[in-house]
UniProtKB/TrEMBL annotation:
InterPro entries hit by this protein: D-isomer_2-hydroxyacid_DH, D-isomer_2_OHA_DH_cat_dom, D-isomer_DH_CS, D-isomer_DH_NAD-bd, NAD(P)-bd_dom_sf
UniProt key word Oxidoreductase: yes
Residue span, D-isomer specific 2-hydroxyacid dehydrogenase catalytic domain: 26-340
The organism of origin for this protein: Musca domestica
Organism lineage string: Eukaryota, Metazoa, Ecdysozoa, Arthropoda, Hexapoda
Name the record gives this protein: Glyoxylate reductase/hydroxypyruvate reductase
Record keywords, A-Z: Oxidoreductase
CDD domains: GDH
Amino acid composition bias (Polar residues), ranges on this chain: 1-11
Pfam families referenced in this protein's UniProt entry, alphabetically: 2-Hacid_dh, 2-Hacid_dh_C
């Protein structure tokens, strides 16, 4: 899939008058990293494996001392404490994720430690799930199942379980990077009317033409979208932006889909918007906290579909993510540009 680093990862021994080479040590913070990635890294490096499930910060800190690289396979905060414990020889880190909101990026930059991540490779899998959430929220799959479970079929009513049409709709994107564009490609088969998007900078004109897309301000996105996909990174600017101010500006028939990060949406306000029919329905694969408690009030609503953050959860995608992360770490160790750098 990708080329290995041109140099076998080795580090000179610090022992005086020694010509021996010491193998680089890589901390792997998750015990279930796909074997393909482990095999790749173990060819020239010693792997320090964490065994806890779920991953445990205490174990990570215990095993981090003296490592040269980190394969960060969880969403546990990667911060100053971890870097301090590891020591000054640490020279390469990659996450096995697209989002890096749990990483203290400024601290890594200050220490001149390269950081890799795995954004592009998961776009198709996440887009597939987003389409499923859109369809199931628009056509009331969850509510329909509860009708079956409770034997409350009312199909003698002509208007029973009416949902929202996708054809001829306006589809909005809050964030329109690789995942948003992968969703837009899939939407072409649904005969939508147009695409609107809100981003900091406009996309390429050729892409705008390809997707029949127009950049608009956030308030216009809210007001005009029949379906609205959240596909932006979590930043101080995006955190909580979908809230009690935003929801009343949306159409009452609107369907909201979030496959980005949970905290971009104020969940208390989303609950109110769904409960009071300010918007029609929602489909979310991300939330906060994760795991979502079984007694969370969102789970009492009929007009929301919730999946447990499984956007990239296919064998092919997770294996590709792990392999790219492994290449990132190895390249960083020998001073080569990472395959997928975060900065």
């Amino acid at each position: 899939m990708t080329e290995a680093p041109s140099t076998t990862p080795k580090v000179e021994s610090s022992e005086e008058n020694s010509s021996e080479e010491e193998t680089f040590k890589i901390l792997v913070t998750h015990p279930e990293v796909p074997q393909e990635a482990l095999d790749l890294m173990s060819r020239g490096c010693k792997l320090i494996m964490c065994e806890s499930l779920p991953p445990n910060r205490t174990e990570i800190l215990q095993k981090a001392k003296g490592v040269h690289g980190m394969f960060w396979g969880s969403h546990i905060p990667l911060d100053k404490e971890v870097l301090d414990v590891a020591g000054p020889q640490l020279k390469s880190i990659s996450t096995m994720s697209a989002g890096i909101d749990y990483v203290d990026v400024e601290e890594l930059k200050k220490r001149k430690i390269p950081l890799g991540h795995t954004p592009i490779v998961l776009s198709d899998a996440v887009a597939d799930l987003a389409m499923g959430l859109m369809l199931s929220a628009a056509r009331r799959f969850h509510e329909g199942r509860t009708k079956i479970d409770s034997s409350t079929w009312e199909n003698y009513h002509i208007e029973w379980m009416w949902g929202q049409d996708i054809r001829d709709s306006t589809v909005g994107f809050f964030g329109f990077g690789s995942i948003g564009q992968a969703i837009a490609k899939r939407l072409k088969g649904f005969d939508i009317e147009r695409v609107l998007y809100t981003t900091r900078r406009p996309i390429d004109k050729k892409l705008e033409k390809q997707f029949n897309a127009q950049k608009v301000e956030f308030h216009e996105l809210l007001a005009q979208s029949d379906f609205l996909f959240i596909a932006a990174p979590l930043t101080p600017e995006t955190e909580g932006i979908f809230n009690s101010t935003a929801f009343p500006k949306m159409k009452k028939t609107a369907v909201l889909i979030n496959i980005a990060r949970g905290p971009i949406v104020n969940q208390d306000d989303l609950y109110t918007a769904l409960k009071t029919n300010q918007i029609f329905s929602a489909g979310i694969d991300v939330m906060y906290p994760e795991p979502l408690p079984a007694n969370d009030k969102l789970l009492t609503l009929p007009n929301i579909v919730i999946t447990p953050h499984i956007g990239s959860a296919t064998k092919r995608t997770r294996t590709d993510m792990a392999t790219i992360a492994a290449h990132n770490v190895l390249r960083g160790l020998v001073g080569e540009p990472m395959l997928s750098p975060a900065y």
